[in-house]
Specification:
By secondary structure, this protein is an alpha+beta fold. It is about 30% helix and about 30% strand. The protein has 3 helices and 7 strands; from the N terminus they run αβββαββββα. A hairpin with a 2-residue loop joins strand 6 and strand 7 (about 175-185). The termini are far apart. About 25% of the residues are buried.
Length: about 210
């Protein structure tokens, strides 16, 4: 009888050791399968190559009437009254500039008047300046443009498609300048030639003044 009791006790003890061993193995297995949380990535450092804006060399023109006197037109027309102008730029972070206008009488037997306006604008991004320049070149408001050599990086002159407007536009980096004439009645061919000559001379004199 005593032997039977001792056998039962040893059986219980053996079972306990087995249970403890299984528990230790389970804990080891759980510990081995545990993984640390993934590290949180730090924000990427700024990349200068991602900046798309290409600032130009020219600052926004201001007080253009102080730099334009329209004397280039004196051989063709008679200047009337004082120059008038204002600074432009509803979106100065994109583009801003200045404009100036002058009234002129045409004289001759037919009489008539014209308003000549000069507008120069500096774009913050050179690419946008080029887009605006090309957009004006392809505008349906004007007839086929004619390239003008020796003026800025590129330039063209134009005449209105269904109106008597004539004009000239030049681009230098981020700066574009336009001279436009609104005549009443329409200009004669001789007046158009003289107007284009005066416009080119005015821009050739003005643009270097704006490069500072």
């Amino acid at each position: 009888m005593a032997d039977t009791s001792r056998n039962k006790i040893w059986a219980v003890i053996g079972a306990s050791f087995v249970a403890v061993g299984l528990l230790i193995r389970l804990l080891i297995a759980m510990g081995g399968s545990h993984t640390s949380p993934a590290p949180i990535a730090s924000p990427p450092s700024p990349d200068d190559s991602a900046v798309t804006v290409k600032p130009g060399d020219y600052p926004p023109p201001r007080s253009l009437c102080a730099q334009v006197d329209f004397q280039e037109f004196a051989e063709v027309f008679q200047l009337q009254g004082a120059r008038d102008g204002y600074n432009t730029g509803l979106e100065p972070e994109v583009v801003s500039g200045s404009m100036c206008e002058q009234s002129m009488s045409r004289g001759g037997t037919g009489g008539g008047m014209l308003e000549v306006t000069v507008l120069c604008s500096a774009w913050r991004d050179v690419a946008k300046a080029i887009d605006a320049f090309e957009g004006g070149r392809s505008s349906s408001l004007y007839g086929p443009p004619e390239a003008v050599s020796g003026l800025g990086d590129q330039a063209y002159r134009y005449r209105g498609a269904n109106h008597p407007t004539v004009g000239m536009k030049a681009l230098v980096r981020n700066l574009d300048c336009k001279v436009e004439a609104e005549p009443k009645p329409p200009l004669t061919d001789a007046e158009v030639d003289g107007t284009f000559t005066a416009m080119q001379q005015l821009l050739q004199t003005l643009i270097p003044k704006l490069a500072h």
